[in-house]
C-alpha cells in the first residue's frame, strides 16, 4: 500500500500500475472536501517520487465516481474576501495540476456519476474510460458558477469550444455515448471489464502504442483556432447562450467569455483566468440564491428518505378517484414510477379522457427518448380504468381528485372509507378545502391527509402534503414516501385555508388587482414581473392560466379564512372577468385573448375589450415605475409567507422557499421568498412595507419581522451551511 487515508487509498498493482482509489470511509458518496484534497496532494507527492510506478489509474470504491465538490464545506468562502477565495482556488487546484503533471501516463475508470469536480478530476487524466452506467457533466452553471478546478478550460481544449459551450451552459449530465462522440471520454466498456480495460490502455501507453505525452501537450497548449474561426464561434455562442440564459443568469455567458479570453493562453494561465471567473460568479446574489436552492433541495430529499424509513405503509398499489386530465396525470405519474394505479370515475367519458392523458404522456416519453416502447406498454397496462369500487378493496392508498366541492368530496370520502382496507390511507387532492373539515366525515381521520398536486401534474415538481389535526405521523410519512417514489418533491404543511402555496399566492393577486384599480396597465405589470423580477409569467397571465372561476373561488376561501388581510369591499378585476365569462385560457379570453396561428401554435394577445371592461373597477391609466409595481405585488406575498413560518404552517424557510419555486415557479435565481428577503435585508423590507401600509393589512409587517429587523437577523445563516 502506497497510501491509506480516509478518502483515498493508493496501491501498486501488477506491471507497475498504481491505483488511486477514491473511497471516502465516512460518506456514502465521494466528494471533494478539504480532507480529500489534502490526501490527494499527499498521494501525488508519493507517486511523483515512487520508482516502481509506470502509470497511474484512478478508480472509485463507490457506486458513483465523484459527485463534485462539497458545497456545504466550501460555500463559506464565497462570502469571504476575493483575495481569500482566489487563494483557496490556487491551493485546491494544486491537487488537480499535481496529478496532471505526474511523469507517467494517467487514466481514469468512470463507473457512475462524475459531475462537477468529479469530471474535472477526470479531465486531468490522459485517458478516460467509462462504463454504460457513467454520467459526466459540469453542472456548475446551475449553481450560478463556472467550474473552479480547471474544468472549463481543459474541456474546451479537449472537445473544442463549441461543444464545451454546450456542456458549460446547460449543466447537463451526459451519458457515455454522447461523451464519447465529442471526445470527453475515450472508450465505453462494460462495468465488469472497466478496470482491466483501463489498465490495458495504460500498459499500451507505457509501451508506446498510445502517445500519452502528445495528448497531454495538446491539452496544455492554447486552443487551436484561427482568428476567423474564433471570432465566429465566440460571437455566435455568446449571443445564443445569452438569449437562452436570460439576463438573470450570468454564469453561462461568463463561461463563454472565459474560454474566449483564455483561448490563446497555455493551460496554466488559462486556469488562472478561470479562477478570476469563478470568483466573479461565486460572489453574486444569483450564485448565493442558487446554491441555497441546491441545499434546500437536499433538505427535502433528506426528509423524504427519513419518511421512507418511518412510514407504516409501503405504497405498492394506488387508486385515483376522479379521472379527467388531473386524475389521468396522477395515475400516469404513479404508474410511470412503478406503482400501478386504478383510476375510478362515475363517467365513462371521464375515464376515457384520463386514459388519453396518461397515454399521451407516456407517448411523449417515447418521443423524447426517455423511455422505451416496452416500458410505455407496461406503464399503460398498469393503469386500470374502472366504473366500479371493487378494486379499491385491495389498494394501499386512495387519492381523491373529484370536483373541488366540499359536500361532494365528503360524500365520496365517506363512501370510499367503508370499502378500503382498515390500514389503507386516504388523501384528498384539494387546493383549498380544509383537511380538518373533510376529516370530520371519516371514521379514521388519523389515516387521512391532503395530497395537493399542481397542474400539469407531470411537469410540476411540488406536492403539498397537508397534515390535519388528527393525521398521524405515520400517515404523513407514508404519503411523503409515496410522493417521493412518484418522483415529486413533497413539502409537509399544516392545515389552514389555502394551505401554504395558495395562501401566499392570493395576496400577490390582491396586490395586482389593487394596482389595476389604481390605474396600472396589466400588460405593463406582467412585463415588469416576468422580465424584471423573473416570474415565468406576470399575474394577469397567470390568472388566465389558473382560470378566473378557480381564482375567484379560491379568493373567496382566502377572504373567509383571513378577512382582515384578504377580504375586499368592492368588485375587482377578477370579478369583472368572471362576470363576463372571460375565464382565461379555458374560455379563450380573460385579460388576454387566446387562439392559434396559421401553423396551429397557440397565441396570446392583449384584448381591447378587456380594457373596456376593466374601466368599471379601474381608475384612469397611470404610470407606475418598476420598483413600485414589484413592491406592491410582492410585499403581500412576502409578509404572508413569513406569517406562515411564524404560525408553523411550514417547518422551515428551506421548505417554504422550495414550495414556492417548485409549486409557483418563483424565480430560482432569487432563491425563494426567505432568501430574497435575506438578500434585500429584512430592515429594508420592513421599511418598504411601512411605506405601503396605507393599502391595507396585507402590507403590514408582522411582529416577528419587526423584531428581526431590529436585531438584524436573517432566515438563513450567512455561510449557507
Can you characterise this structure?
The structure is a single chain. With 721 residues, the protein is an alpha/beta fold. Helices cover 51% and strands 12% of the residues. It has an 8-stranded mixed beta sheet, with helices on both faces. A 7-stranded mixed beta sheet has the order 1-2-3-4-5-7-9, with helices on both faces. The protein has a two-stranded parallel sheet with strand order 6-8. Helix 4 (117-123) crosses helix 5 and helix 5 (151-159) crosses helix 6 (161-170).
Q: Outline, from the CA principal axes?
A: globular
The strand line-up of the biggest sheet is 12-11-10-13-14-15-16-17
Per DSSP, the total helix count is 31
Strand count, sense and barrel status of the largest sheet are:
8 strands, mixed
> How many angstroms does the end-to-end distance come to?
36 Å
Q: Which range does the strand content fall in?
A: 5-15%
Structural class by secondary-structure content: alpha/beta
Name the poorly predicted regions: none
What's the gyration radius in Å? 28 Å
Helix content: 40-55%
Q: Mean pLDDT, nearest integer?
A: 95
> How many individual β-strands?
19
Amino acid at each position: 500500500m502506497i497510501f491509506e487515508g480516509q478518502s483515498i487509498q493508493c496501491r501498486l498493482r501488477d506491471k507497475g500500475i498504481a491505483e488511486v482509489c477514491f473511497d471516502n470511509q465516512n460518506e456514502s458518496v465521494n466528494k471533494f472536501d478539504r480532507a480529500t484534497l489534502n490526501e490527494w496532494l499527499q498521494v501525488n507527492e508519493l507517486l511523483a517520487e515512487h520508482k516502481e510506478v509506470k502509470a497511474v489509474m484512478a478508480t472509485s470504491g463507490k457506486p458513483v465516481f465523484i459527485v463534485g465538490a462539497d458545497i456545504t464545506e466550501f460555500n463559506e468562502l464565497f462570502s469571504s474576501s476575493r483575495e481569500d477565495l482566489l487563494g483557496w482556488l490556487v491551493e485546491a487546484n494544486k491537487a488537480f495540476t499535481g496529478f496532471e503533471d505526474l511523469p507517467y501516463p494517467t487514466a481514469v475508470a468512470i463507473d457512475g456519476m462524475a459531475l462537477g469536480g468529479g469530471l474535472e478530476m477526470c479531465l486531468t487524466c490522459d485517458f478516460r474510460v467509462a462504463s454504460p452506467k457513467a454520467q459526466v457533466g459540469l453542472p456548475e452553471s446551475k449553481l450560478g458558477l463556472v467550474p473552479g478546478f480547471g474544468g472549463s478550460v481543459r474541456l474546451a481544449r479537449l472537445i473544442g469550444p463549441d461543444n464545451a459551450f454546450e456542456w458549460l451552459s446547460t449543466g447537463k449530465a451526459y451519458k457515455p455515448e454522447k461523451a464519447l462522440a465529442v471526445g470527453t471520454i475515450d472508450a465505453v466498456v462494460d462495468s465488469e471489464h472497466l478496470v482491466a480495460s483501463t489498465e490495458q490502455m495504460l500498459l499500451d501507453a507505457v509501451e508506446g502504442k498510445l502517445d500519452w505525452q502528445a495528448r497531454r501537450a495538446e491539452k496544455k497548449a492554447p486552443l487551436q483556432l484561427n482568428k476567423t474561426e474564433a471570432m465566429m464561434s465566440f460571437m455566435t455562442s455568446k449571443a445564443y447562450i445569452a438569449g437562452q440564459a436570460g439576463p438573470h443568469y450570468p454564469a453561462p455567458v461568463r463561461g463563454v467569455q472565459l474560454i474566449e479570453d483564455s483561448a490563446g493562453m497555455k493551460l496554466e494561465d488559462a486556469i488562472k483566468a478561470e479562477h478570476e471567473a469563478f470568483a466573479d460568479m461565486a460572489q453574486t446574489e444569483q450564485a448565493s440564491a442558487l446554491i441555497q436552492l441546491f441545499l434546500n433541495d437536499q433538505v427535502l430529499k433528506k426528509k423524504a428518505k427519513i419518511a421512507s424509513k418511518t412510514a407504516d405503509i409501503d405504497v405498492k398499489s394506488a387508486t385515483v378517484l376522479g379521472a379527467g386530465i388531473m386524475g389521468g396525470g396522477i395515475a400516469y405519474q404513479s404508474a410511470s414510477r412503478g406503482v400501478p394505479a386504478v383510476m375510478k370515475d362515475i363517467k365513462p367519458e371521464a375515464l376515457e379522457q384520463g386514459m388519453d392523458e396518461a397515454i399521451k404522456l407516456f407517448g411523449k416519453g417515447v418521443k423524447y427518448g426517455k423511455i422505451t416502447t416496452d416500458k410505455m406498454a407496461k406503464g399503460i397496462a398498469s393503469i386500470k380504468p374502472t366504473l366500479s369500487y371493487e378494486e379499491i378493496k385491495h389498494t394501499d392508498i386512495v387519492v381523491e381528485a373529484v370536483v373541488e366541492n366540499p359536500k361532494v368530496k365528503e360524500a365520496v370520502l365517506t363512501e370510499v372509507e367503508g370499502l378500503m382496507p382498515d390500514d389503507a390511507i386516504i388523501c384528498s387532492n384539494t387546493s383549498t378545502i380544509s383537511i380538518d373539515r373533510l376529516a370530520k366525515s371519516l371514521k379514521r381521520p388519523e389515516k387521512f391527509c391532503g395530497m395537493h398536486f399542481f397542474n400539469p401534474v407531470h411537469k410540476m415538481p411540488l406536492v403539498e402534503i397537508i397534515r390535519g389535526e388528527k393525521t398521524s405521523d405515520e400517515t404523513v410519512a407514508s404519503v411523503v414516501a409515496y410522493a417521493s417514489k412518484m418522483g415529486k418533491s413533497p413539502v409537509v404543511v399544516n392545515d389552514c385555508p389555502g394551505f401554504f402555496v395558495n395562501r401566499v399566492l392570493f395576496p400577490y393577486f390582491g396586490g395586482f388587482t389593487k394596482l389595476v384599480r389604481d390605474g396600472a396597465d396589466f400588460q405593463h405589470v406582467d412585463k415588469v414581473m416576468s422580465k424584471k423580477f423573473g416570474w415565468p409569467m406576470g399575474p394577469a397571465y397567470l390568472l388566465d392560466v389558473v382560470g378566473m372561476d378557480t381564482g375567484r373561488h379560491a379568493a373567496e376561501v382566502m377572504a373567509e379564512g383571513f378577512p382582515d388581510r384578504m377580504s375586499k369591499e368592492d368588485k375587482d378585476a377578477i370579478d369583472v372577468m368572471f362576470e363576463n365569462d372571460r375565464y382565461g385560457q379555458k374560455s379563450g379570453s380573460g385579460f388576454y385573448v387566446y387562439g392559434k396561428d396559421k401553423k396551429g401554435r397557440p397565441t396570446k394577445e392583449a384584448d381591447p375589450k378587456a380594457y373596456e371592461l376593466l374601466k368599471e373597477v379601474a381608475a384612469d391609466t397611470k404610470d407606475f415605475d418598476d420598483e413600485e409595481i414589484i413592491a406592491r405585488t410582492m410585499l403581500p406575498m412576502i409578509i404572508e409567507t413569513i406569517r406562515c413560518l411564524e404560525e408553523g404552517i411550514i417547518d422551515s424557510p428551506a421548505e417554504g422557499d422550495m414550495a414556492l419555486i417548485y409549486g409557483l415557479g418563483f424565480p430560482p435565481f432569487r432563491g425563494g421568498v426567505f432568501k430574497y428577503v435575506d438578500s434585500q435585508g429584512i430592515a429594508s423590507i420592513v421599511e418598504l412595507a411601512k411605506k405601503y401600509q396605507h393599502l391595507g393589512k396585507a402590507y403590514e409587517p408582522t411582529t416577528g419581522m419587526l423584531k428581526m429587523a431590529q436585531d438584524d437577523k436573517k432566515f438563513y445563516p450567512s455561510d449557507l451551511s
